[in-house]
Structure formats: C-alpha cells, structure tokens
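Lecture 7 notes: from sequence to structure.

We start with a single chain of 686 residues. Read the sequence below before looking at the structure.
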Amino acid sequence: MINDHPSVKFTLHFSGNLLEWFIKNKPELIKKVKEMAKRGQIEIIGGGYYEPMFSIIPHRDKIAQMKKLSHFINEEFGLGINGAWLSERVWEPHFPSFLSEVGLKYVIVDDNHFRSSGITQEETLYTYNTEDEGELLRIFAINEPIRYLVPWKPTYMTVDYLRQIADESGDRVALMISDAEKMGVWGSTHQICYVEGCGHKEGDKGKPFMTAFIEQIENNDWIKTITLSEYIEQYPAKDLVYLPAASYDKMEEWVLPTEIRKKFSHILVLTQKYSTWKEASQFLKGGFWRFFLVKYPESNNMHKKMLHVRKKLLLIESKIKKIKDSELISRLKPKVLEAWDEIYKSQCNDCYWHGMFGGVYLQFLRFSVYTHLINAEKIIDGMNGLIVSQNSSYISIEPLDFNGDSKLEVLIESDILNVYVNPSDGGTIFELDYKPKSYNLLNTLTRWPEAYHNDEKLKKGEIKVDHFRRTMMRTRFFRDDVNFSQIDADKYYELGDFINGSFKVTKSDISGKNSLLEMHKEGAIKDLKSDQHFYCDMYKTIEVENNQVKLTVMCTLKDVNQNGQIEQSIIDNIMLAIDVPFFFNGDPNDFQWEHLHLKSSEQENKDLLEPSLYSGSHFKAYDKTYGLTFEIEINHASSEIKIGKFPIITYAFTDEGYKEIYQGINIILMTKFEMDFKINLNLKVY
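Now the structure, written as tokens:
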C-alpha cells in the first residue's frame, strides 16, 4: 500500500531471519521495497539479526548481530544503516558505546524512558543526545498518545492530536513506529486497517484505516513525513540526556514478581482514578527487564546454557590460534562460523520473557533455543575431535555455578547426553539433552502463579500452580490418603524437607564411558499424628552411560527406639514419590505410550496427555514427529509401585486471550516408604 504513495515517507525495520523469509517467499514485496528505497521514500533501520535482547548477550555478540543485519540490508537494498531498533525497546545506559562502535547515529526508545527521568511529555517531541564513554548517540522517543490512537481510533483524532502539539518552529517530531502485527494481525486489526476501518463512520466515512490515514497525511500539508536520518541532518538535538534502564511501561509491570505486580497494578489504577495521584504516575516505575531471568528459572536456564556453550566455542577459537596445519584450519573455520550462527539464533528475545504475549510460555520457542544450542555443541564436539585427531566420543563431569546463584551445579556431558544436576534444589536434574536429535527432554515449564490468575479459580483448583520447579528426581513424602488429583494439582501436605533441600555431592567419578554422581542429605520427615520429626539419610546417585541414565534413591531411617526399631506405625502411612517429568515437542496427536502391564482392554485409551494411574514397573512414550522414545524401567523389590502421569498445563494470558498451554508430561512414581528404602530407575532415550 505505501508503495502507491511516494510522497509519504516511512521507516521500516526487519529482523534478519524475517527478511530472509520475505526474500524467499515474498519476492514481490521485496521488489516494492527496493523501488521505494531507490526513490528515497523509505529508510531501513538496523538492529540485531536474530532480534536479541542486547542487555543479556555479550558485547562481541551485540556487535556481530548488528553488523550481520546492517551488511545484509546494504547488500540487498543498497542502503546504509544509521539507526537501530531495540527489541521490546529495552534500553540500558551503556548502549551508546556498542551502537556507536558499529557506526550507528541514532536509536528509538519509548517516551516512557524519558518521563521516568523527569522529562515532560511535551519535551519528548524533540530528539536528544546521550553518551557513554564519550560516544554520542541521538535518541528518538516513540509517541505514546499516537500509539494508542493508531489504528484503534478514527484518523481525524490523530490529526487533531498532531495539530495540538505542532508549533511554528516546525522542529517537533511525533514518531509512530510499532510492530507490524498491530497493523493487521492482532485481533480485529486486519478488518480495521484494510477492510472497514474503526467502525466509526464519522471522519473516515467507513474507509479502511490505512487508506484514510495516508489520505490525511497527503491532504494536510502542514504534516511533514520525514525519515529519521533526514531529521537528524536537518535539526540538532534539543539537549543532552541520560536515561535509566527501561522498557515500555507494560513490560516493566510484567517483569515484577507476581505478588509485587499485583500491588503495583493496584497503585496504577489509583493514579487513574484520583486526580491528585495522576501527576505521580510519571514517576511510577516498574521492574528491570533482566529480572525475567529470576522470575522464570526456565528463562535463566536457556540464557546460562547459551553462555556456557559460547564459552566452549571461545575455547575452540583459542585452540585454533595455536594450530599450524593450514589445511586443518581451513576445515575448522567454516564450522566455527556455523556454530556462532547457531548461538546467535538462540538469542532471539521472544523466548525469554512473558507478559501479554506467550514468550517463555510458548514451548516451541524454548525448544528452538535448545535445538540451536545443542546444534552448536555438536559442531564443537566435532571440531574437538578434528583438533585431537580422534573421534568425538567423550564423557565429562564438571562442577559449575551454572545458574549464577553462587551454588554449584554439576554438568555431566557426553557426545550423546547432557545431564545437568542441581544438588541445592533437592538433588534434581534440570536439563536432559539427547544430542543425536538436538532435543532437550526437560524443556518443561513450571506452572508458576501469575498476577492475572483468578484467586477463586486458584482456590477451586481450576488453575493449577506448582510450589517447586518441574525437574526430574524431585522426591516427595506424603500420607497414603492423599489422592492422585491432589498430587496432580500439587495440593497436598509435604512431610519431608528433601523436596527442595540442599544435597551434598559425596562422589563424582568417571570410568571409561561411564560417569557416576552421588549426593547425600540428612533430613527430616514429619509425623502428622504426633507432630514429631524423625530423621533420615537420603542418597541419590546418577549414573550416565551412552543413552541411559540410571537413577537410585536410597533412604535409611536414623530414629530408632531402645530395642533398635522404630515404631512401625510412624511409617505405615507414608508414601515416597519421585517426579520424572519430560517434554515432547511433536504433534500431541502423534504421541504414543505404553507399559508392559497394559491390559488388552485398555489398549484404546492411550492418550499420553490424559491423566492415568496404574501399578507396574515400566513406562514408554514415543514422539512420532521426531522419532524419539523415552523409556523408564523401575526396580523396587519390596512394595508395589504406582505410576501416575498427568500433563503439565499452564494457564497463561496471551495476545489471543487466556490459553491452556501444554508444557510437558509429569510421571510420578509412588510407593510405600520403608525403614531401609531403595529404588532404581533406568531411563533410556533413543
């Protein structure tokens, strides 16, 4: 449409991967963009090639992603790049340094960023300079009033607003730039923009919004459209300014911890309700974007995995510098570039946060992050094999503060499996990668409580939330009168302190292709009748070999009476349970499962996502889309084993409204607790 109105100027932004898709699938669109570029109607601004969140990626990656996109745009359209789009308008004060390093002259943020510095709304109608380490950068503010007018209100309202803020000097700029989804994808916006307008006959006479909007610009000669580069060439900055770390106002609300967010939202309502509070709203500031990595451990997991893998790649680069074999170097260099590109792809910002959009709740986005990172690991494994002139088969155990919380996790890695263990969180496994298929089987998401959850539905159990992260080998103690529905809803009384207690690593060993990790915790189990605690030693072992993970949980009671025995009545009513969650990414309609004890009459009811409970020692599931099988074999000599399964479903608010989103399947193994307890699990992935 804009191609038909050459007098109206526009600024466009494409992420690199989206631009690749357009070039391949929409060549006519690309042809029109080139025509507009040639006649000077448009400017294309840069950014990160894979739309990363610059605040959480290393400096080298910032530069590489910016240069990659700028080069791509220049090659395709012959345009130089002067400005940058910041993903979700997340800004931090050090940004001028790296943006200037890649030759950029300006950046776009929200006027919200300015208001929190004490700058009035009227003052945001100008541009400002900012600097870091002496590097200057011009800043444009996106105009909030226009953002809420377009395309929701008749176009004359936008024109009236522009008339109110215009002055005789002609150097004011009202910037309207927004996601393309807003102009035709979200909700009813396609109808509004291209079919019937806003539904208000007055002013636009029923014309589609975009048609009427461009006509308004063309018919009001006092409205001048201009590219941002043209503006900074013609008009100086109003002043120097320093902005705090910020994003758009909604994002700063979404990032707050759930209970704090509820309070903050209430205060915001009061500022709108009472006139005496309205002025205070300018100084009400929510949270800091990086806190999403704290609010959602699954987001932090992806981020720290990215940093972990890139450190491996940096080590490869340092090894290559010492190689004198030119032929080997020529074989390695393309692989290094390929591995870096996989890491850059994993940095796409949408996967790491959640607000009105799915973000981290969208399981396929998380799966994509892990796929790219495991792809990079496999390339790195192959390069290590080339460097040492042997096959890339290996196994290692590394204690590492992976999560950044000052406590050591243990990373067991091989050419087939990655098994990441958190001793301080109940001795649980939080990542299980099957590298042949670049597949993280623990790409689960916990059913976290959210500020938008209805309290009444939470009480009734219509919305299920978890008390602890859905990781593997979490051990639970509860009375035998707790039913399966209570377990599914995580609404039962926990008797033990092992569930999220801190275990001590007592053994870490490698023998050939086998690795062994042993952990111990002395903890307590509560007797509800007497309100007394009795003490227990728990040992957890994790053994990894080829495509198998062997898990053992052993418990020994320490409290005994004078006769050397504990009162049997204390433990008669106690159940021990072990969580074995996993994630399949394929089409749920093609998920299959079975167990060795399945009766022929039960063969038809085999929906993997349907809750079920049975007695047995075996479980097997198959993701047909990826051709991947996950199998559990259980060895426990004494008591009967109950195997329960239920889907992990989150209740999330998205741009499409409230949605129930599948996040994995939880297998829970339940059996009677005993004075000397031991259970062995053998997990196979193939």
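The mean pLDDT is 93. Keep this in mind for problem set 3.
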